[in-house]
Amino acid sequence: MRLLKKIISSKSITIFLIGILLVSCKGNFALLTIENARPATDELSADIQSITLMNRSMNKQFDNYQEDSLQLYFYRKGFQLSQIVLDSVSSDTIVKGLAELLYESGRYDVVVPVDRNFPRELPYEILPDTLSQKQVSQICRDYNTDALIVLERFSTKVMTDYSSEKYQNPATGIEHSHYASLDVKYGAFFRIYKPGEKLPVKEIALTDTIYWESIDNTQFKLFSKLPSIKQAVISAGIKVALEVDEKLSPTWTSEKRGYFLFNPKNDRGQQLINENKYDEAREYWSELAQSKNKKIRSKAEYNLALVSELNGDIDGAMEWGLKSFYSYYRYQTEMYLKKLKVRKEAIQKTK
To answer: Are the beta carbons of 201 and 194 closer than 8 angstroms?
Structure first.
C-alpha cells in the first residue's frame, strides 16, 4: 500500500513538473502553420518545370453529342444497353482539367495550345506510335516548355440497366418499384515526352469504372437521381484528369512548427516571420547563434533550422537542428529532428 502511494505521488510530481515546463515554455515558444509538399509517386524529374499538354486520342469516330439526344437514344433502348460512347467534350475535358490541376499544384507551369488536337486516322482503340524527337522538340520549342504530355488514347463504354416490379402496399394497393444503374468504363493512355530523349520518359495507363444507381417508386424521380449519359462520360474525363494529377503532382499538408522567442513581449524574430521576411530573420538569429550562452545559442540554432526548412533546405535544417541539439538538449529539438527525418525520407523515396 505504501509502495502504491509512492508511485502515485511520483507520477503526480512528474505531471506537475511537466505542467510547469509547458507553462514556462509557452511564452517563449511561438507556433506557426506551414504547408509542406509531399512528393507524388510518379513526380517528374526536377528539370521538368513546364509542360505542354496535347490530345491525340480523337478521330472522326468522336462527336460532341447533344445531351438530350444521347439520353433519348438510351431511353429508347429501354435503358438496357452497353455502348461505346466517344464524346469529344469528355476527351477535351481531360486535357483542360489536367492542365488546371497540374498548374494549381504549384509544381508545374502548363501550356494548352489552342490547336491542341493531333490529326488521327487510327481507330480509337489503337495506340499510335510514339512521336518523333523532331516533333517533340519543335512543340516544346514553340511553347517554351520542358516536356510534352499527350493523351494518346481514350474511350468510354456506357452500360445501363433498368428494371421495375410491382408490389402490394397494404395502405395504397399495387405500387411499382423502379431500379436503374449507370456504369461508365473508361480507358486512357498518356505518354510524357522530353526533348532529346528517344523514348517517352513516362507512360501512364488508366482503366476503371465509375457507376451510379438509383431506386424509386416513379421513373421521373428515379432518373432525376442519375446523371445524364453526357454528364457521366464527362465525369469519366474528370476522373482521368484527377488520377493523372495524383500521380504527377505533390500534395500539400498543413503541419505545425515552432520557434523560440527571445523577447516574448516584442520579439524581432517573430515580427520578421509574421512578415515572411525569412532572410532577415536568418540574419537576426545568426547573430544570436554566436552567443557563448549555450541556451541562447541553442534556441537561435533551432530557429535557423526552421528558416532552412521554410526555404526548402531540409539538409540545412537538419544540420542546424543537430547543432541546437548538441548545444543544449531540448525535447522540442529532438521531436523536430524526427519530423525532418521523415520529410527527407519521403523526398528520397520519390527520387
So the answer is: yes
Helix (H, G, I), strand (E, B) or coil at 246: helix
Residue ranges per structural domain of the chain: 28-39+251-350, 50-248
Q: How confident is the model at residue 350 (pLDDT cuts 50, 70, 90)?
A: low
Beta 50-55 vs 109-111: how paired, if at all? parallel
Architecture field, domain 28-39+251-350: Alpha Horseshoe (1.25)
Name the residue with higher pLDDT: 176 or 295: 295
Euclidean distance between CA atoms 114 and 65, whole angstroms: 21
| Distance in angstroms (rounded) separating the CA atoms of residues 79 and 61 | 23
Residues 6+ apart with CB under 8 A from 339: 255
- Nearest CA among 285, 269, 288 for reference residue 277: 269
Give the bridge partners for 131, in sequence order: none
- The yes-or-no verdict on residue 8 having pLDDT over 50 is no
Taking the C-alpha atoms of residue 108 and residue 49, their distance in angstroms, rounded to an integer, is 5
CATH code for the part of the protein at 50-248? 3.30.160
- Rounded alpha-carbon distances, angstroms, from residue 32 to 94, 258, 333: 37, 6, 16
Question: Rounded CA gap, 140 and 147, in Å?
Answer: 6
How large is the angle between the packed helices 229-248 and 67-76, nearest 10 degrees? Answer: 110
Which of 317, 340, 351 lies closest to 39, judged by CA?
Answer: 351
Tens digits of per-residue pLDDT, 225-280?
999 999 999 999 999 999 999 999 988 788 899 999 998 788 999 999 999 999 99
Please tell me the distance from the alpha carbon of residue 270 to that of residue 156, in angstroms, as a whole number. 55
